[in-house]
Structure formats: structure tokens, C-alpha cells
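Hi support team,

I've been running sequence recovery on a batch of backbones for a student project. Most finish fine, but this one hangs at about 90% for roughly twenty minutes before it completes. I'm not sure whether the input is malformed or the queue is just slow. I've pasted the C-alpha cells below so you can try to reproduce it. Let me know if you need the job ID as well.

Thanks,
M.K.
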């Protein structure tokens, strides 16, 4: 029996790694992946930061190599890798539908929990259009973010002149407190609305660099966080509980799985 078949976790979700950017904690991620036993590993977008890799300042050394190696090792050990690209690795969306042994690229996925509930797995940038409104500062921040993500050379030049090494949405949100909370709530509800419209029981996403695990109106909202600041991942353990994990294995939050629905009593056979 392969290691993955007797895994501790039914599934693990990781996003917003930003591999290639100076802000990625690649060593911690490699250590986390090294000890991982999972049947399935979802890479929920912004895994490789292609915007950074396109620049000479890209950070790519032994730790970054080790992350890629760990992913290969997991696939070899039988873990099924499902890559759902985000906005920093958007070009990889061209490969959506690609299925390799133990590796798939999907625009979005559905994860079925042990208790049968089905969760939408998507990066979350699809909700930008819904969440991006509000006061001027928010709009300016979003505009700046989009320009940077778009790799606009003039913006990058301006950014360098201003001494901004990396414009972080998380930092921006923190600097806004009240606006940040409103932004996050809009994001949560946009995601949950999408899941509900698809007839699903919740969502697993990333993108906003805010780890979270909670139930809202009977739906699951899980954000696996990032490897820039929170260094967190989401897991469904062997018992079917959802767990928000810190890189060192510490537990940030837990949402117990539901008792499986009892089989409906058999109807008496007509005589
Ligand atoms: Mn993103």
C-alpha cells in the first residue's frame, strides 16, 4: 500500500506560496511538505509567482528547489496533486484540463468531504470584480495591485522609485482596518454565493492572504492563508475534520465533520 493510501490527511490545501518572490517562506513550506502524508494535495493558486520570475530580482535558490522536489516526491509517493492556478500564475490556466499521472491542472475543482459535503476549490481572484468597490483608498489600492499584477513596467518602475519592494494586499488591508474588514466580508460572501449557486456546501480559497475556517449560513468558508505571512495550510484529516494548520503543525482552527447521514430506512417490499 502506498504512503498516500494510509495518509494522515484526506486532503491538504496550500495557496499563495509566491515561489520566486523574496517574500515567500520557501524553507518553511519545504519542511511542511517534507513530512506531509496526504491522499490529495490541492495547490490553490499563486503557487509560483510568475510576475517575480519574469524579473531579474526573482528569488530562486536551494529552498525554492526543495519545494519543487517535495512536490515531486509527494506525487511519486502517490499523493494526487491538483493545481488550480491563480492570478500570479495565471498563464498556467492555459493548461487547465491537463491530466498527468498524479497531477491535474484545473480552473476550479470540487472536493468531496468524508461526510459527503462538496466544496468548491478556487483561488478567489474571480471575485475581485465583486469586491473591488468602496472608498477611494481601497480603489486606488486595488488599481495599484492590478497594475502590479499585470506586470506594468511603468508601475513597477514607479514602485521601485518609491522603494516599495512588494505591494502586499495583506499589508494594504491591515493599514485600512475598517475597510479591510468590509473588503474581507465582501470576498467571503462573493465566494459563498458562488458555491451556493453551484449547489455546493462551501468554498476553499486563498488570494486575500487571510487564513480562516468558519461556517457562514450553514456553508463552509475556508481560506488556507498564504506562505508570505501566515504560513498556513488547510487539511481534511482522516476523520473528516477540517483543520487550519500552521507551518509547524500547530492548529489554528478546526471544523468537525458532520455525522454521515444515516441510510434511509428500507421501504418494505410490496407483497
Ligand atoms: Mn491571488
Amino acid at each position: 500500500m502506498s504512503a498516500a493510501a494510509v495518509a494522515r490527511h484526506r486532503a491538504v490545501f496550500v495557496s499563495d506560496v509566491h515561489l520566486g518572490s523574496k517574500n515567500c517562506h520557501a524553507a518553511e513550506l519545504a519542511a511542511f511538505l517534507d513530512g506531509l502524508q496526504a491522499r490529495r494535495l490541492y495547490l490553490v493558486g499563486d503557487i509560483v509567482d510568475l510576475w517575480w520570475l519574469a524579473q531579474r530580482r526573482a528569488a530562486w535558490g536551494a529552498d525554492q528547489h526543495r519545494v519543487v522536489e517535495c512536490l515531486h516526491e509527494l506525487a511519486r509517493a502517490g499523493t494526487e496533486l491538483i493545481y488550480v492556478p491563480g492570478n500570479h500564475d495565471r498563464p498556467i490556466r492555459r493548461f487547465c484540463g491537463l491530466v498527468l499521472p498524479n497531477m491535474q491542472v484545473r480552473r476550479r475543482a470540487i472536493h468531496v468531504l468524508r461526510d459527503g459535503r462538496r466544496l468548491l476549490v478556487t483561488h478567489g481572484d474571480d471575485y475581485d470584480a465583486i469586491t473591488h468597490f468602496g472608498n477611494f483608498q481601497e480603489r486606488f489600492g486595488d488599481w495599484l495591485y492590478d497594475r502590479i499584477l499585470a506586470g506594468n513596467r511603468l508601475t513597477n518602475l514607479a514602485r521601485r522609485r518609491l522603494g516599495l519592494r512588494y505591494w502586499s494586499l495583506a499589508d494594504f488591508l491591515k493599514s485600512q482596518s475598517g475597510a479591510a474588514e468590509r473588503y474581507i466580508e465582501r470576498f467571503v460572501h462573493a465566494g459563498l454565493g458562488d458555491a451556493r449557486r453551484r449547489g455546493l456546501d462551501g468554498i476553499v480559497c486563498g488570494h486575500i492572504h487571510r487564513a480562516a475556517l468558519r461556517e457562514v449560513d450553514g456553508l463552509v468558508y475556508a481560506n488556507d492563508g498564504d506562505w508570505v505571512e501566515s504560513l498556513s495550510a488547510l487539511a481534511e484529516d482522516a476523520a473528516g475534520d477540517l483543520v487550519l494548520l500552521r507551518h509547524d503543525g500547530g492548529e489554528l482552527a478546526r471544523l468537525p465533520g458532520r455525522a454521515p447521514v444515516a441510510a434511509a430506512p428500507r421501504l418494505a417490499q410490496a407483497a
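--
Follow-up from support: It reproduced on our side and the slowdown came from queue contention, not your input. Residues 3-255 form a domain with the Purple Acid Phosphatase; chain A, domain 2 fold (CATH 3.60.21.10). No action needed from you.
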